[in-house]
Design a protein that fits this description.
The chain is mainly beta. The chain is built from no helices and ten strands. The radius of gyration is 17 Å and the shape is elongated.
């Protein structure tokens, strides 16, 4: 997967198209990522004890990695790989800079 935790990404498709945020978590087995502030759903949580109240919780849900792109200078870019000094590094396909 070319997107990693902590990357700033932009959403390319779906109801949140155009929104940006940092990647909170990656799920390599399902090719999904959780992006901060994107794909928010409201979860109804029951009360834990008999005298407490239930609550509504907003949380981010996973989005497929093909629907997001890495941000570089406020523009989406594709990611490539290059070997430098014996290490594999990510590069921007548009500018050739290392990420």
């Amino acid at each position: 997967m070319k997107i990693k935790k902590g990357d700033n990404v932009i959403v390319l498709t779906g109801k949140d198209k155009g929104k940006t945020g940092a990647v909170l978590e990656t799920m390599a087995d399902t090719d999904k990522v959780i992006v901060e502030g994107v794909q928010l759903v409201t979860k109804h949580q029951k009360n834990k004890r008999s005298r407490s109240q239930g609550q509504l919780i907003e949380k981010e849900m996973p989005i497929h990695v093909s629907n997001v792109a890495l941000l570089e200078e406020k523009k989406p870019v594709r990611v490539g790989y290059k070997v430098e000094d014996g290490k594999k590094v990510r590069i921007s396909r548009a500018s050739g800079k290392t990420i």
